[in-house]
Amino acid sequence: MTAFHPALIQLGVHHRPEGLSDRVAYGFVKLLRFCADTFFAKRYGHRAVVLETVAAVPGMVGATLNHLKCLRRMEDDKGWIKTLMDEAENERMHLMTFIEVAKPTLFERFVVVAAQWVFYLFFFALYLVSSKTAHRVVGYFEEEAVISYTHYLAEIDEGRSPNVPAPAIAKAYWDLPDDATLRDVVLVVRADEAHHRDVNHGFANELAGLPTGEVAPCPPHAELQPNWRKAA
Ligand SMILES: [Fe+2]
Ligand SMILES: [Fe+2]
Questions:
Q1: Span of the secretion signal (predicted)?
Q2: Domain tally for the chain?
Q3: Res 5: pLDDT
Q4: Is there a domain that residue 41 lies in?
Q5: Of the four, 62, 105, 191, 203, which is 20 to 30 A from 156 by CA?
Q6: How far is the C-alpha of 150 from the C-alpha of 67, rounded, in Å?
Q7: N- to C-terminal Cα separation, the chain
């Protein structure tokens, strides 16, 4: 088995929208993309901080609602709950990493609070109405995340964003070498997003009765312990 390398992931994976549910999900994500592009332009650090606060919501909502469903129906979750909780934790670690790279403005902090109110309630309701559409939304969301982090890499490689040393929290979480840089961090984050993309499109497919497809491997993550920050 060859070792995992975060640069060797499938970048251009796209689920072609089929049917109303997929089209609604795709249209919604494209609208959000337009808003994000307009608001952040090329401020990729700020973009990452704000969008990761949103990206960490669906996994926890999906985990909660699947947990409750399994309790009601007294049935097995087929591993979905842990997968979705891992996704939420992973997205929160993206946030904890990028907050070390870019500090949000006061206005961005306001946007984060407002967006959480709206998005949490919206996504919760969507998941209740159609978990298939909800997972498809996340799949498309993650397709866009892979594209955005690829743009961020180009910014770094072309010298428009400084390739600063990797934050300590990122080195501990992804087990990166001591001399790791922001570029290494963006690569592993992008690989995480590709993994979420395939997992969520796979869940949507499973709910639609379609073949689930391949899932990009995710980089190894440190187990978070209660006192892990001290150990880092
Ligand atoms: Fe993320
Ligand atoms: Fe993600």
A1: none
A2: 1
A3: 86
A4: yes
A5: 105
A6: 34
A7: 29
Token code pair at residue 126 = 């969507």
| Residue 11 resides in a domain | no
Number of the ligand closest to the Cα of 138: 2
Q: Which domain holds residue 189?
A: 20-223
For ligand 2, the distance from its centroid to the CA atom of residue 55, given in whole angstroms, is 6
Residue type, 147: I
Cα-to-centroid distance, 211 and ligand 1 (Å): 25
Q: Cα separation of 32 and 39, whole Å?
A: 10
User: Residue 60 sits in a domain of what CATH number?
Assistant: 1.20.1260.140
Q: Which residue has the tokens 């709206």?
A: 118
pLDDT tens-digit map of 163-172: 999 999 999 9
The answer, as to whether pTM is greater than 0.85, is: yes
| Nearest C-alpha neighbor of 37 from the set 122, 136, 144 | 144
Residue with tokens 């980089």: 219
Model confidence pLDDT, tens digit, residues 55-64:
999 999 999 9
Ligand 1 centre distance from Cα of residue 90 (Å): 7
Residues with Cβ within 5 Å of ion ligand 1? 52, 55, 91, 94
Identify whether 9 is part of a domain.
no
Q: Are the C-beta atoms of 80 and 127 separated by less than 8 Å?
A: no
Distances (CA, A) of 170 to 1, 6, 125, 173, 209: 26, 14, 33, 5, 38
